[in-house]
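Write out structure tokens for HD domain-containing protein.
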Amino acid sequence: MKDSKLRRQIAFEAARLMYSRQETEYFQAKIKASRRTVRGWVKPADLPSNAEVRDQIRVLTRLHETDADARHGRLGRMRLRALWWLRQLDAHHPKLIGSVLTGSVRDGSDIDIHVFGNHPDAIADEVDSLGFGCQVVRKQVVKDGQPRVFTHIRIADEFPIELTVYPLKWIGHRFKSSITGKAIERASASQLEKLLVFAHDYDAESLSTSLRQIQGRPDRFQVFQALMVPLENVVQSPRWHPEGDALYHSLQVFGLAKDEAPYDEEFLLAALMHDVGKAIDPDDHSVAALEALDGYISPRTAWLIAHHMEAHKIHDHTIGARRRRRLASHPWFEDLLLLGDCDRGGRVAGVSVDTLQQALDYIEGIEEMFGGDPVQPSWSPHDVGPIR
């Protein structure tokens, strides 16, 4: 295989992995793509550059997201939300970076912000005090030949937010792009305001009005939608999921749950959201789901999501007797078995399902029908017991 053709194939596969959110780092995406492409060792010189992978991601975006007006509208909303966060985090010298600043957003894109502080957990506490669930993640990467640990704070909002926390001494540091090798583009709150006025038809008054209308805590159904949309790009193993992507599977499970318990909001949310963590952390998707949904779902919904994988072990008779007895003594055990039935049943290729918006509208309609109050963030995932 010619080197140029090999590079293109690896670049395309790496782009597909990143577009589907299976990988978020260029280096890891290229390594996985090279193993899939040649099923063996690849010389570093044969790996495509980050820029080549980025160009292929843009091609996939143009192919799959053809409505330019809708994409521009989403970009404007994301930039407005980013400005709100820059103002909330002002004490930590925030700077907007990434696709929301450059304008190259796609379905599932998050809002990337650099913040500076010597105590990341304190920043996470501030986010929590605003009423948002967040997850602190520490990643070790090799930078300039040296291993470094970077701290990220992931926030569940109308659009996913990712804060990268750097020490205060790095405030004046000019970060370089891994794609161009040049200084990374970034914007302060005042610079982002000018961009919104220039590119999205705001003036000072309308911008202030729009920011005031942003709720400190987003509507929970906006959060549900923001977390569910990336599942469309999560490709699953055909062995276990012949139906296709994780969103299609989740909508099938929701449809079966609606047939079984049409007015049970908590159960329906568990059915719809049980795999939402696969777009965040495929290796531990139950934990990732609970952390992302913290404060937006009830303890019963959280318990069902936490233990839905164990429902399959019960069905397959692979769970330990002691563990099964503990689950069987729980008041929501029968609901767990029913969720497992729906989960296994939602794996059929080609069946008709509701759209995500239809599913969310249906569940929200149940709340309105019975006059339910929004779920308050008065509990934690730790309250639902061990996940494993």
